[in-house]
What we know:
Oligomer: heterodimer
CATH topology of the largest domain in chain A: Rna Polymerase Sigma Factor, Chain: A
Helix content of chain B: 10-25%
Number of helices of chain B: 6
Radius of gyration of chain A: 18 Å
CATH architecture of the largest domain in chain B: Sandwich
CATH superfamily of the largest domain in chain B: Mu homology domain, subdomain B
Shape of chain B: elongated
Distance between the termini of chain A: 34 Å
Amino acid sequence: xSNSRDQALIERCKxxxxxxxxxxxxxxxxxxxxxxxxxxxxxxxxxxxxxxVFLKAFEQLDQxxxxxKFFSWIYRIAINESINQIKRNRNHxxxxxxxISNVRGPDDFVRAGDISRGIQESLMGLQEDYRTVVVLRxxxxxxxxxxxxILHIPEKTVKSRLYSARQLMKQKLKGSGIF
Amino acid sequence: MLxxxxxxxxxxxxxGELGSEEQKELEAVLDSSPEAVTFRLELxxxxxxxxxxxxxxxxxxxxxxxxxxxxxxxxxKLFKLPGFFAGLTPVAGGLAFAAGLLLAVGxxxxxxxxxxxxxxVNMVGTMVASDQVTAPGQGDRLMLDLxxxxxxxxxxVSKNGRAIEFDLxxxxxxxxxxxxxxxxxxVIGFAQDDRGDGSFIxxxxxxxxxxxxxxxxxxxxxxxxxxxxxxxxxxxxxxIGISHDGERVYEDTLGxxx
Lengths: 179, 258
């Protein structure tokens, strides 16, 4: 996904070219969906977030500034929408539900043999600002600089959040016997 | 207990964010500190665990759900072929360019103003005098031999105008963009060789000083241009770009011989 290709497709979208829209969606649907899934933690919410992200992005194409990379712009929308989705969910989850989800024992992951789920759950245990840097670094494979651009935070903050998040995840996964 | 500097070096090393000096510094630390080696191995294990997680497929209907809801602006075409031709009376002779070749001909005069989207939408057609078009020659000729497409694009230059002649054979849908504004040019006419099969190029648009042609198949057509009196870009080369499936596959310039 080169930036020049993105720019060409965006220009065509602005002119009403639906094929260009399909191509942009084809390029970014999967990465946005996966990033959203790793942040919100379930596939249905990730699909909702992905839908909102693209509808917002395409509606606001005129506001997109070509001096910035399109992927940074769309990831930023994706991160914000994912966090909004978590907040919406939080309002609907009762205290009892949260307590139940938190009492999952360390051995449960191993018994289930589900390392993938264990990692996802330890990710969900991180606070959101830590989780987003982990997702952008490890799942979206962004550099420190790109994460800094997407989240509008200094690179120093990116590093500090990422290193702390890794320590927390390491401890959690060690405690659960996965690591 | 590892100090902050070592923790940072190890993390940045995992992320591929170290410069060469820092890399050497990290290697020296790892050579001398078993604790640093253990810490690094743990982080590498975490990194591997992330890498081994499967990438998820979005729900199959998601893309179409999104596409169904997106409202794009209406396409602003200069004209859509062959509808454009249906409303025109063929020019009866007098057009010197490539005599006998161009049977389906439509010309229009845009006036001296710089073209804008609005101008092209409301454009009214008029005939162009034959002395405003041009005789062949005096410009670059690009020989195209691309994947799924071949042909020529030639610039013909005269005192009063320019013409770009396209002779294309493309098995796939290709898009050609010409930056006319930066060359100080405006479009005054278009003509296409009638090969007798009723097929025409798909689209010709003019937006923001850029002309865009969409073509698939074998077509021969000419776009007539003239210098915009308002432009300071007279004599500059015309940038041409060809794209397929959103990917730019060819770029070059067309210039007059000097």
